Amino acid sequence: MYNITLIPGDGIGPEVTMAARKIIDATGIDVKWEIVNAGANVYEKKGVLVPDEVYTSIEKNKVVLKGPITTPIGCGFRSINVLLRKKYDLFANIRPVKKIKGIDTPFENINLTIFRENTEGLYSGIEKKETEGAAQAIKVITKKASLRIIKEAFDYAKENSKKKVAVVHKANIMKLTDGLFLECAREVSKEYPDIELQEVIVDNMCMQLVMNPEKYEVIVTTNLYGDILSDLCAGLVGGLGLVPGANIGKGIAVFEAVHGSAPDIAGKNIANPTAVILSGAMMLNYLGEKEKSDLIIDAVQRTIEEGKYITKDLGGISTTSEMTKAIIEKISKK
Ligand code: NAI
Ligand code: MG
C-alpha cells in the first residue's frame, strides 16, 4: 500500500486532482490518500495559506499529487509552489512534452523533456524596492544547484537512449550567472561522450521551438526560462491541459501539471484533467509501478484519439467528469 498526500489546490485544482485520483484508484493499485489543502481557498477559511498538517503529511508520505495553487500578481502572498520547491529542495522540475495522437498540431514527432532548475535563479525570492521608482531582483546561480540539475538531465538522456541535451541560457548577456550555468553544462557533458551538448541562447530557443521542435530531445535550463519554455512547449502539443510534471528532490517528490489554477474556467467541470492524470502516471512510475503507469497513459491516449469524450480545449464537448469516466472505462476493460 502507498500513502500519498493529495493537495487539491485552487481553481480547477479540486476537479482535476479528483479525476486523477479516481483514475489511479481504477488501476487497482492500493493507495491511501491523505487529503490536505493549501492555497487561496484555505486562506479564505482559516487565515493561513499552508496549514501545518500539509507539511506533516508531505514529510510523512514523501510522495505528493498536487493541484495548482493561485498566486496573486504584484502584491499579496508569495508563491506557495516556489516555497514548497525550496523548502523540500525539489531541485528537478521535469516536464515531458509529447505529441499525442488525435490532436491536430503542426508537428508529428515532438518528444522532448524539459529539466528546469527549481530552487534558485530569478525565483530565489530576493527582491527589494530601492525607491518608489525602482526595484531589484537578484538572480542566484550556484555551481552546486546547476551541476545537479544538469546531471539529472544527462542521466535521463543516457537512460532513455537520447542523443542530445540542449542547455538553454543567456550567457552572452548574463556572463556570470548564466555563464556559470553554461560552464557547468560543458563540464558535465564531458562525462557523457555519447551525448551531444546543444548550446542555445534562450531567445533563439523560443524561435527554434516554434519552427523546429523535433530537433530537441532534452532541454536543461534555469528556473525562469524553464517556466516560460514549458508553457511554450505545451502550446506545441495542444495546450496546457495536456502537459504533466514532477518536482523531484532527494526523497520527496511532488507531481503536478504545468498549468495553473485557470480561474477563467474553474468550477464549471470543463477543465481538461489530462495533465494531472499524466502527472499521476509519472508518480506511479516513480513508485516503481510502471505497468499501472503505462495503463493510464494508454487509456488517456486512446480516449483522446477516439475523440468522443474530450474537453473543449481539445475541440470536444465533454465535461471533466465525462472524459474521466471514459478513461476509467478503458482502464477497466483491459
Ligand atoms: P493557467 O495555466 O492557470 O491558465 C492559462 C490558460 O490555460 C487559461 O486560459 C486556462 O483556462 C487554460 N488552462 C489551463 N489549464 C487548463 C486545463 N487543465 N484545461 C483547460 N484549459 C486550461 O495560467 P494563469 O491564468 O496565468 O494562472 C492562474 C493562476 O495559477 C495564477 O494565480 C498562477 O500564479 C497560478 N499558477 C499555479 C501553478 C502551480 O500551482 N503549479 C502553475 C502556474 C500558474
Ligand atoms: Mg509556469
TrEMBL record:
Belongs to the isocitrate and isopropylmalate dehydrogenases family. It comes from the Bacteria. GO terms for biological process: isocitrate metabolic process; tricarboxylic acid cycle. Keywords: Oxidoreductase. This is Isocitrate dehydrogenase (NAD+). GO terms for molecular function: isocitrate dehydrogenase (NAD+) activity; magnesium ion binding; NAD binding. Signal peptide: none annotated. InterPro entries: IsoCit/isopropylmalate_DH_CS, IsoPropMal-DH-like_dom. SUPFAM superfamilies: Isocitrate/Isopropylmalate dehydrogenase-like. Residues 3-327 form the Isopropylmalate dehydrogenase-like domain. PANTHER family: DECARBOXYLATING DEHYDROGENASES-ISOCITRATE, ISOPROPYLMALATE, TARTRATE, ISOCITRATE DEHYDROGENASE [NAD] SUBUNIT ALPHA, MITOCHONDRIAL.
